[in-house]
Write a structure and sequence with these properties.
- The chain has 64 residues and is α+β, with helices and mostly antiparallel strands.
- It has one domain: Factor Xa Inhibitor, CATH 4.10.410.60.
- 36% of the residues lie in helices and 16% in strands.
- The protein contains 3 helices and 3 strands, in the order αββαβα.
- The protein is elongated, with a radius of gyration of 15 Å.
Length: 64
């Protein structure tokens, strides 16, 4: 049986922590940054844990 390959797009977008949580970057930090207040940009720049409903699918894509 061949090895399962890690999904290339997923490995660039998600990071698994030591405790097994999956971290992701928030949307909204790519363009129109001069319009957004600094407070909002600071909030959007933080990493978030992935929603519980999506964890199983992403872990499968990451080969875990």
């Amino acid at each position: 049986m061949p090895k399962q390959k890690t999904h290339s797009g997923s490995k660039k977008r998600f990071k698994v922590t030591g405790s097994g949580k999956i971290m992701k970057q928030q949307a909204g930090m790519r363009h129109n940054l001069e319009v957004k207040p600094a407070k909002r940009k600071a909030r959007l720049n933080e990493d978030l844990t992935l929603a519980k409903a999506d964890r199983k699918a992403v872990k499968k894509l990451l080969g875990r």
